[in-house]
Structure formats: C-alpha cells, structure tokens
Design the sequence.
C-alpha cells in the first residue's frame, strides 16, 4: 500500500494551493483528482476579482498558472475517484479509491461542489438535450438562438452576460423581485440589450419531445403563466457539496458541507477541509486559495507532532 504524509482530495484552487504549501514544507503529497486540475475555475469564462489580475483572467489560464507552479515539486497525482475515507485515528487514514487504497497521515478535503438542479420533471432527460449547468461549456451549441437562465446570484448574472455574447436572447428568470448578485453585476446586466429579466417568476415545466423547445414560467405574485420559446435552459441556482465519501464521524452541516474551525481543521484530528466544500458564506477563487494555504499550514504543524 502506498503511504503519504498528506493526501489532498480535489485539484481546484484550494487543492493546488494546499499541495503547494505542503510540498514546500517538505511533506510527501498525493493529489487525487479524477478530472483536469482547476475545478470550477475551468467552467468560468472570465475572472475579474482575483488579486494581481486587474484586467481579469480567463479561468483556464489561471488554472494553468497554478498547475505550472507545482511542476517543480515532486508529487503524485492520481486520476481516480475517492470512494470513502477511513479515519483510523490521529495520523492514520485510509483513502479508498477506484483502483487502490492509499494511506495518509493527514487528509485535506478540497472536493468542491456540484451544481444544483431545479427538480423539474424530465430535467435529467433534457440534460445534454437543452438543459445545461455550464455556460462556458455549452453556450456555443445555442449560438444565434434564444435561451433561458435561472438564478439570481453572481454566477447567474456573470454567466448570463457571457451567454448574451453568443446567443440571440437570454431570459433571466429569478424568483425574487431583486437579484442577490453584487451591485456592479446588477448594474452591468441592465446595459446588455439582449437580456430580459423575468422577475418574481419560476420555471415550472420543460417543453419538448426529444429536445428542449420551451420553458413554461409562472409569475409568483398572480400565478400567471408564460411559455418562453427557447432551445436552451441554463441553471445557476447554487451548489451541493461533494462529500458522499466523507467518514461517518466527520461533522457536516445540515446541507452536508464540512464544518471546520478557522484553521480549516475538522473534528477528526489530521483531517482538514478547504474551498467550496467548507460550510461558509463566501465561495470565491480568492477564498479557496486562502483556505488551501491555511489548511496546509495546519496540516504541516500537525505532521510535526507525529
């Protein structure tokens, strides 16, 4: 069985930062990431609020820079999925992967989140046939067509602005009378001529046979309905933490995010969490990087006690 000082689960900004700091401390590191390094950053067209990039930076470019930062340090990357973690006690953890089991003195969980679904009938069927959760991934399939988007936070507005560059029309559906996004985004979206904000409304039905042909929307104040003639629906209504593999004894919030202290330590000695998978309010690239650095520092101090 392979044994490491530290195993990092997830290769997004939090995971790559944790790896960098642990490697610099002299710890042996295995990073488990079944997809390409970068996490949700790879699905972000443009990042405007990451320090050091005043003109903004493309998501994949920032991810590539983080990957490059690790290249000078010897470490192990495992392109597998974590099935479970067995916490045997302080300094002893078994991480069960698809193809093998590895041992770790400390574990840093940076597994991130998955996008929430609306829960509409046939939503799963239409996924890939008109329903999407990533504008950067799928916008070009709808070039010159009309689409709808659902959500009211930063992601919904940022992605709708990106969609508007490619598609003919964006109907942005939000259940409240005001968006929750940053004011700068709320002002910017008013200037995009091909975005129509459909406020105080919810999507109630996906219309179509084999492919999406429309979205039925209900106005909440009066119950009035409207059928939007669209070929795509982009859903941006929040996220679900990827914690199904977590030990049963790990403290989770009611929504299954990992509970940590300010040093990223969980209730299990030697197990840490960083990034979007943590129970916290602000989920940004900058906070993920800070979490990763803090978790790695805490893990390094813990390793010194063993």
Sequence:
């Amino acid at each position: 069985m392979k044994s490491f000082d530290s195993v990092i689960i997830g290769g997004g900004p939090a995971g790559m930062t944790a790896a960098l700091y642990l490697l610099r401390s002299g710890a042996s590191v295995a990073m488990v990431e079944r997809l390409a390094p970068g996490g949700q950053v790879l699905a972000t067209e443009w990042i405007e609020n990451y320090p050091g990039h005043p003109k903004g930076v493309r998501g994949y470019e920032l991810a590539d820079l983080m990957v490059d930062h690790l290249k000078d340090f010897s470490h192990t990357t495992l392109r597998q999925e974590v099935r479970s973690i067995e916490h045997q006690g302080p300094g002893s953890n078994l991480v069960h992967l698809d193809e093998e089991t590895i041992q770790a003195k400390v574990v840093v969980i940076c597994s991130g989140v998955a996008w929430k679904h609306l829960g509409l009938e046939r939503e799963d069927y239409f996924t890939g046939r008109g329903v999407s959760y990533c504008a950067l991934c799928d916008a070009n399939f709808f070039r010159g067509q009309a689409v709808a988007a659902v959500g009211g936070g930063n992601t919904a507005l940022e992605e709708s602005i990106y969609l508007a560059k490619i598609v003919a029309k964006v109907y942005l559906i939000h259940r409240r009378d005001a968006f929750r996004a940053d004011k700068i985004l709320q002002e910017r979206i008013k200037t995009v001529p091909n975005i129509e904000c459909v406020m105080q409304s919810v999507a109630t039905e996906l219309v179509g046979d084999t492919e999406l042909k429309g979205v039925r929307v209900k106005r909440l104040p009066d119950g009035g309905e409207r059928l939007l003639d669209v070929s795509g629906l982009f859903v941006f209504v929040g996220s679900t933490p990827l914690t199904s593999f977590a030990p049963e004894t790990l403290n989770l919030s009611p929504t299954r995010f990992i509970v940590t202290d300010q040093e990223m330590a969980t209730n299990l000695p030697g197990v840490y969490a960083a990034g979007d998978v943590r129970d916290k309010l602000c989920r940004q690239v900058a906070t993920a990087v800070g979490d990763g650095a803090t978790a790695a520092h805490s893990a390094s101090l813990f390793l010194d006690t063993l």
